[in-house]
Amino acid sequence: MKKVLLSLSMLAAVMVASAQNQFVIWDASNGHTEITGTPFNFGVPGTGNPPAVPADPVVGPTPSNAGLFVDTAAFVIRANGSCAATKYYVGGMGAASFAAPNVGKPWGTGVTASGGSMANYYLNLEIKASGTTAPIIKVQMSASDSTNVQGYILDLTTATGVATSNGFKIYSIALGSFSNTIGQYGNPINKAGHFMTKAFADSLFKIEYAVNVGTTTDGSGSVNFQIKNQWLGTSKTGIITSTQSAAANIASTKVFPNPSTSAFTAEVSLKNAATTTIILSDLVGKQIATKSVDASGQANFETSGLAAGTYVVTYVVDGTPAKSELVVVK
To answer: 293: domain range?
Structure first.
């Protein structure tokens, strides 16, 4: 009895989340990005007004005045640099970022596929600002032709973020709050008819950061902040993992008959089409049989040769274990 209760407790920990439309720009847990083409292009700060085009990407140990760069030990993106200009680019991400117009492949985010207002979709940034004065960041997104640029001013001195860990906070900006900028290096217009559309959100190919340090009246000085995660989606609490996504795709499951004497059927119904297999294991994790579901979403298992006891049925959706249930064999 104790073994069965322990297994039930473990199974209750399987995470199930509501379906979330999501596009991962950067995941600091593994350095993953869903951006197509060149994964990133982090440049050094430019000088002048407007700022010069950033130089080649810098990836590796902390360099001086390196713009955005990847801390390869922790997969955290860091911003570090000094500039005398009022505003300057710290860096950006995206295929052919900082290249000529009409260069680069749209990301195809698909975040707005579920419908609804643009106010329901967010750019989420998990940021930790160092020092006593947090920077004012102009977050800028570009469409694939580089002429339609949408921006938002994120003032970390006043913005309210949701604390996560180690000083990081999640700042969620509704995509409906982004508006056209005045030229490629200008500020958002914030007027009717100029705000981001769903078509724009689903065809991005570049995201950039321009910084007004805020330490002086003209914004000159040094920047030092970290970006842990960046993602587009309906979730404001964190990047949805593959396990959560797979679990959210399951509409229902059923194991019958349960208890079983000679055979049982495991059945799964999905919200969206996916490759699904079902694994039968014992309580210590040893796999006994793996079956692909048929057109009706079912898989049949023989149990006549198994010892009496409790076994685990695991539903695997697109290669990710999504849900487990118990079956008793007599």
So the answer is: 2-17+242-329
